């Protein structure tokens, strides 16, 4: 595995996942909270700061719309970043299981 991409923060990881379907900022906040069972709650400042950065990196793009709520969607480059991060997380998980001799289940 190369250092092609730095590790993603949990918030950025969830934002990118949320944008596999077009969503506006509030929709992202709701889905992230739902996906994480309420554990991850992103405020508006966090969301819009991250969106700005993700747009600059070319990982997401804004969709043309006539509504007042701007929607965003992940780009092909963003999908590559997510795939890389999933591989990285899988490696972390697999090594943790191997070393601790746990089976990866709760209990």
CATH class bucket = Mainly Alpha
- Give a quick account of the main beta sheet: strands, pairing sense, barrel closure: 2 strands, antiparallel
Number of DSSP strands? 2
Number of domains: 1
Helix-strand string? HHHEEH
Strand order of the largest sheet: 1-2
Oligomer: single chain
According to CATH, the homologous superfamily is: Winged helix-like DNA-binding domain superfamily/Winged helix DNA-binding domain
Q: What's the CATH architecture name?
A: Orthogonal Bundle
Domain Transcription regulator PadR N-terminal: 21-82
Protein name: PadR family transcriptional regulator
Organism: Lysinibacillus xylanilyticus
InterPro entries: Metal_resp_DNA-bind_regulator, Tscrpt_reg_PadR_N, WH-like_DNA-bd_sf, WH_DNA-bd_sf
Short structural description:
The chain has 107 residues and is mainly alpha-helical. It is built from 4 helices and 2 strands, in the order H-H-H-E-E-H.
């Amino acid at each position: 595995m190369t250092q092609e991409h730095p590790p993603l923060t949990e918030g950025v990881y969830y934002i990118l996942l949320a944008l596999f379907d077009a969503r506006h900022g509030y929709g992202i906040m709701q889905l992230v909270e739902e996906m994480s069972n309420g554990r991850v709650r992103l405020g508006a400042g966090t969301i819009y700061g991250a969106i700005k950065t993700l747009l600059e990196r070319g990982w997401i793009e804004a969709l043309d719309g006539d509504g007042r709520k701007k929607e965003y969607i992940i780009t092909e480059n963003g999908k590559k970043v997510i795939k890389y991060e999933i591989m990285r997380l899988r490696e972390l998980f697999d090594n943790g299981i191997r070393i601790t001799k746990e089976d990866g289940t709760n209990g």
